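PT: before anyone asks, these are the final sequences, not the draft ones from last week. 1552 residues across everything. Please model them as a single complex and drop the result in this thread when it's through.
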Amino acid sequence: MNTMYFTEEHQLFRKSLQEFLNKEVVPHINKWENDGHIERFIWKKMGSMGFFGINYPEAYGGLDLDLFYTVILLEELQKINSGGFAAAIWAHCYLAMTHLNAQGSQQIKEHYLTPSITGHKIGCLCITEPFGGSDVAGMRTTAVKSGDHYIINGSKTFITNGVTSDYLVVAAKTKPELGNKGISMFVIDRASAGITATKLDKLGWRASDTGEIAFDNVKIPETHLLGEENKGFPYIMQHFSLERLIMGVNAHARAEYALEYALQYMSERMAFGKTIDKFQALRHTLADLYTDMEICKTFNYAIAYRLNKGEYVVKEATMSKLKSTKMADEVIYQCLQFLGGYGYIEDYPMARLLRDSRLGPIGGGTSEILREILAKIIIDKKEYKPAT
Amino acid sequence: MNTMYFTEEHQLFRKSLQEFLNKEVVPHINKWENDGHIERFIWKKMGSMGFFGINYPEAYGGLDLDLFYTVILLEELQKINSGGFAAAIWAHCYLAMTHLNAQGSQQIKEHYLTPSITGHKIGCLCITEPFGGSDVAGMRTTAVKSGDHYIINGSKTFITNGVTSDYLVVAAKTKPELGNKGISMFVIDRASAGITATKLDKLGWRASDTGEIAFDNVKIPETHLLGEENKGFPYIMQHFSLERLIMGVNAHARAEYALEYALQYMSERMAFGKTIDKFQALRHTLADLYTDMEICKTFNYAIAYRLNKGEYVVKEATMSKLKSTKMADEVIYQCLQFLGGYGYIEDYPMARLLRDSRLGPIGGGTSEILREILAKIIIDKKEYKPAT
Amino acid sequence: MNTMYFTEEHQLFRKSLQEFLNKEVVPHINKWENDGHIERFIWKKMGSMGFFGINYPEAYGGLDLDLFYTVILLEELQKINSGGFAAAIWAHCYLAMTHLNAQGSQQIKEHYLTPSITGHKIGCLCITEPFGGSDVAGMRTTAVKSGDHYIINGSKTFITNGVTSDYLVVAAKTKPELGNKGISMFVIDRASAGITATKLDKLGWRASDTGEIAFDNVKIPETHLLGEENKGFPYIMQHFSLERLIMGVNAHARAEYALEYALQYMSERMAFGKTIDKFQALRHTLADLYTDMEICKTFNYAIAYRLNKGEYVVKEATMSKLKSTKMADEVIYQCLQFLGGYGYIEDYPMARLLRDSRLGPIGGGTSEILREILAKIIIDKKEYKPAT
Amino acid sequence: MNTMYFTEEHQLFRKSLQEFLNKEVVPHINKWENDGHIERFIWKKMGSMGFFGINYPEAYGGLDLDLFYTVILLEELQKINSGGFAAAIWAHCYLAMTHLNAQGSQQIKEHYLTPSITGHKIGCLCITEPFGGSDVAGMRTTAVKSGDHYIINGSKTFITNGVTSDYLVVAAKTKPELGNKGISMFVIDRASAGITATKLDKLGWRASDTGEIAFDNVKIPETHLLGEENKGFPYIMQHFSLERLIMGVNAHARAEYALEYALQYMSERMAFGKTIDKFQALRHTLADLYTDMEICKTFNYAIAYRLNKGEYVVKEATMSKLKSTKMADEVIYQCLQFLGGYGYIEDYPMARLLRDSRLGPIGGGTSEILREILAKIIIDKKEYKPAT
Ligand SMILES: Cc1cc2nc3c(=O)[nH]c(=O)nc-3n(C[C@H](O)[C@H](O)[C@H](O)COP(=O)(O)OP(=O)(O)OC[C@H]3O[C@@H](n4cnc5c(N)ncnc54)[C@H](O)[C@@H]3O)c2cc1C
Ligand SMILES: Cc1cc2nc3c(=O)[nH]c(=O)nc-3n(C[C@H](O)[C@H](O)[C@H](O)COP(=O)(O)OP(=O)(O)OC[C@H]3O[C@@H](n4cnc5c(N)ncnc54)[C@H](O)[C@@H]3O)c2cc1C
Ligand SMILES: Cc1cc2nc3c(=O)[nH]c(=O)nc-3n(C[C@H](O)[C@H](O)[C@H](O)COP(=O)(O)OP(=O)(O)OC[C@H]3O[C@@H](n4cnc5c(N)ncnc54)[C@H](O)[C@@H]3O)c2cc1C
Ligand SMILES: Cc1cc2nc3c(=O)[nH]c(=O)nc-3n(C[C@H](O)[C@H](O)[C@H](O)COP(=O)(O)OP(=O)(O)OC[C@H]3O[C@@H](n4cnc5c(N)ncnc54)[C@H](O)[C@@H]3O)c2cc1C
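LR: through. Structure below.
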């Protein structure tokens, strides 16, 4: 499979990344999972290794590599079994930074994108609000122009890196009366007066901080508007393709991790006088699940290839997330079962995996919202176009 | 439905139990879930209310009520959303105490069963071992007769109430060379020298302590043998019917709880200008899941009715656990989804429910083992007979 | 299980019915399946045996037996593997005759119900129309009062026994402007001028004739109105409970038939040196499916018991049909698989079973419509009340 | 998607093929489906158009085109909704002819392959026997060398084109004592004395003839051995990759056909005052199914690409058939449902599609056998190597 998309350079990158993660990250994972907090030093280390800049312009310190380097980064982050650590990284790199890179002015990029690449600044992306995540157009946060500033009021919730990030990329209504045609994007410095954030206690992604954030008359310079006013909705939609594909790739990677772990476990665990990988019922289930994973992986790679070429793959990325996240949940549910009682124990990987994986069909657009989008494309022949 | 099996007395019992739980238990649940420990006082309170004796003989302080009182107890325990608290209670009442009551001598009953009913002593049932849970006959723990004592050596794991219980009902081999024909049951006092226990960190059932236990030359009086020597396996198998039905009932009850909570939530949560219980796709899913739950519930009641009449329902109880636990996992998975991001937050009930429910297809015989049993009954026409 | 609902008399009835079917019906089934036509003589034979009158009043020649005799009749009809023959019988007995018995005048009953019981007259129930089956209220057939007659115009389709029946129980609008509040029921003699019918070519139920019927100024006496004018919709809804439970019972019975056949086949068919019922993957699948069937059966019996007692089980009967028909389709799909290539051959029972079973989730209210009804009951707390 | 694999030439080919099929084939389909027989003239017409030679060498009259032409041929054959017609064609082109081309001598190729390409001779591939299809190594047909001839005895069943073909590619044991190491392949002329064949009555694929064949001392020249003696098993296994991918491609294509038909139907059918494609529950189901189909299609194309490059894709082709055929069955089951009662009528496409599609998980290796193979590859790390 790999030879279709992955060159030798890709493989070298994967290997060095694996070594880095095993040496620098894995020893801390349990601590971070327990504390619900990832220490700052690792951000800087990863930044200094260039991992945050792989698909960003060299002008801002990036490496400008193709999308399959990102795929590798995502896959390997899943395979150290901390959905929360992975989320913290990719929410920074691919939610917050994507907006900076695409719509930020040169000044904004120098101020936020460059230190994001080096790991000195951490970002987050704030779209969801307490009264509604699915209905993006229904958001209530406002940004009112006042002289050369905007005043932000409102609240956001479920924000990854929401408590610890240094800046926030925030969607707010500049023309509330226009619904989704009145949304704009801003970058807001954490230091701004009027921001408070509290941490949420979650089923999984426990190493990642997920915050509820209140903006109380937060005053920001007008230069912190990203792109054009009232174009926020198309920007968000456009970047969703990448986000959804990312979540699809994450899903196939953690499913693969679960399957490989289960395979190993089953080749060692004995019951009724044989290793349990000799029981036909388990063998067939495993063959089925492995196949489901391989098919999603192949699909996701094909979509990554097309996205990398510049195609607008909103339909396919939506499909990728919808199916890969469900597949991952099912694979992990069953791999936990393969471990019997040990599957239920937190010292073994499946318990955390199950908790972490369950976010897949919720975050970044629930499965129901994805089906809505697909129904519009497939049934109503709606055409989604890139923001211009 | 209820009128078919539940009398007015049953309903009164249910109501007073609900009141008790809401007043005495619910305020402590979060603490116990966090601490991984249930405080002693509640055992005594529940004992003094008679809840532990509902289906035990009056001679030992019980109430000798029909099985539908037990069904009510189980159902209501699920509906306060602590699988761990519920498990602690029913493992005591229906795993440990069932063996005492069925095979214990009068002396043993007076010494262990009576205080178990009053809540002064807590029990546990130790069958599973680190090297094998499914393959009961493969257990390695031994009990060697030496004068008027037995010497117990070996280890057990995944034992509910394994660390905090006052006595342990333990399966051990008295004739290892005979496989499942050489197993005997014992009651062992926690105070006996040579017992050590450590607590396991689990995905769910967090209020319940699950222990790994080592027996190092534990000396117990021969009178602590339960029933006859070498009859342990048939005893275990016989009591599995009740255990499996219990786990089936638990499953339909927690699914019902999840559905009722989701119904309420969905009638209040707005998206796109309406409450989300107006979206047809969600409505149909909910109708489907509710139906699955109702069908399992009806089945479980019918089996309880037959078990209560004294029928040997090994096939049906196996079916009950196999399907109800899977149904519950699926219902809860989807109810969590109905809550969107809030489903993922531990302050809302679904996260814990998902974690707790996942034990269903593992404990008390994995789904695979249940299918093995059913295949033997249905395909090979094997007849399971009660131990005599 | 059976002892809960079935007495010795029931069992004797079942046995004699089985003998009758094997002797009088089975030898003709293949012919009728090929011809798409059931010969008249068998109707008379079955009538003379009393099979059509088991739950009808003695006054009209019936036997007035409890609903479990009907359950037995339905089950045994499924087990001779002609969904079409079974449908012809139960559409006559439980669709057409139910309306006659419940809403017909004494005169109508003497003229139509009595010969229906003896098998001299065959009935059908005409609700569905070419432009809409699910939306009953949207029907277009009209009945216009003119003196002491009604004039019927319109068309019906998918009508079981639609071409060969002697009379038709027909829903038509007497007040079209009132939607479902303007529907009335009529019995129409086949001999009436202006009726034409053509037969449809179907995937399954091939022994049964399914007709498209046109009413062109059909003039019928006003006495052929069943019950009150404009009460047709509540009548239909009320009788749906029985119809849906019937379809649920049919489903569990044909699933059981498929499973029993597969069990036998698998105990004889060899592959890789053993009978295929030794392969664990097949064994587990079979155990799972058998369990699904048993659970539906237990549910259906419980609902039959309550319906027999006079409870209004619209929710439960809807659940019965929704889940049992899906279960049957899945069981049969997989049982066909167990036969390998032979499953695909019409000389073996699974091919026809698959074709016949597929009607389950469509006829008598599609699964989607059933979910709509359940959603209204469960989510909107809508109460369906019996017609008064 | 297409642009990744399909050039403009491919698209032109597809268009001209579609026109051919619509003009020359479609008008006869219903007749052939009813008669269970495909008339000879169409074989010759298709041969003269070059369709049978697209991936065969020019030396024998072929066009030597890449595998995506074959993919197009397969896809378009599915989209005229006669699984039987399609099967007759591809069993000829890709089961029988693949063996001739790969292992036939030049003389055999001239005598059989060339007229197969022109459509003057029709072939079939005979592996399955009445006593075992899955267990290929257990076959009982023998080929005994006698001078410069072989004498063939035994029987085969379920053979596509088994009654009407002009030659038969047959697996038989030359060294029965060696199991799968003693199988050889032969081409046998229909005219040979001692061959009898009878036609089977099937659930679907009704236009295709499926035959049971008896070989009674059939004498064939030794030159009709294909390849080397006792290498039949590896030859069969090797060619299975193509066969299984073909069946995967067929499956995604017929699923796509079903979905497109349903989309069209649903955009026209009214219920409750709107077109049924406005009901969210149906929309979401359709979006899900469409996605399943797209993902399988993308996977199948990726595997075709690799097979075309000469990779040995036994694992991937097995995955393709396993999942695509199940997906197709599920898609078609549900698309039939979308049509309501019309789905059950043979004049509408879904009934036949359902019947035809059901063969997918049986023919060319049952799903269970595919899981066996995958389990060996994934769990036991077995490596399948091409025959040398
Ligand atoms: C751990 C975590 C991290 C997150 N990180 C971020 C982040 O970094 N930034 C950010 O902006 N957001 C983030 N989110 C929020 C996430 O994107 C939202 O939770 C999600 O979009 C759903 O929104 P909601 O929770 O408000 O659910 P709701 O919108 O309230 O949905 C409730 C239910 O209704 C369903 N529903 C809604 N509308 C329809 C409809 N039309 N038809 C059918 N069903 C419908 C939904 O599918 C869901 O099942 C995060 C969430 C979590 C849990
Ligand atoms: C929270 C918790 C509480 C528990 N409480 C108790 C308790 O109070 N007392 C007690 O004695 N035990 C208890 N258990 C143990 C429980 O009963 C076992 O975990 C269970 O029986 C499985 O055993 P195992 O973990 O050794 O799995 P294994 O036996 O190692 O099984 C591993 C996997 O192999 C499968 N498998 C095994 N044999 C076969 C076969 N022949 N065919 C196909 N598949 C097979 C299993 O289904 C499983 O998927 C508890 C477990 C947990 C997690
Ligand atoms: C063999 C056979 C025998 C039959 N016998 C009889 C008989 O004896 N008497 C009789 O009166 N009828 C009979 N029927 C008709 C049967 O009851 C109808 O086919 C059925 O009710 C569906 O109606 P329809 O075919 O018009 O489908 P439609 O109503 O056109 O439905 C098409 C699709 O849309 C879906 N749909 C419709 N409304 C909604 C909604 N609101 N939300 C979501 N999805 C929706 C449906 O579920 C279905 O999937 C028979 C049908 C068959 C095939
Ligand atoms: C319409 C049609 C066309 C066909 N065309 C051809 C053709 O052109 N040429 C040809 O040679 N053959 C053909 N076949 C035959 C087809 O390949 C076989 O039917 C198929 O391989 C299964 O073999 P069987 O029918 O003997 O089933 P069996 O081998 O008897 O299998 C019965 C059941 O047992 C299961 N089973 C078997 N072994 C195992 C195991 N180890 N573990 C678990 N489950 C197992 C199977 O999966 C199946 O469910 C055709 C079949 C049909 C129906």
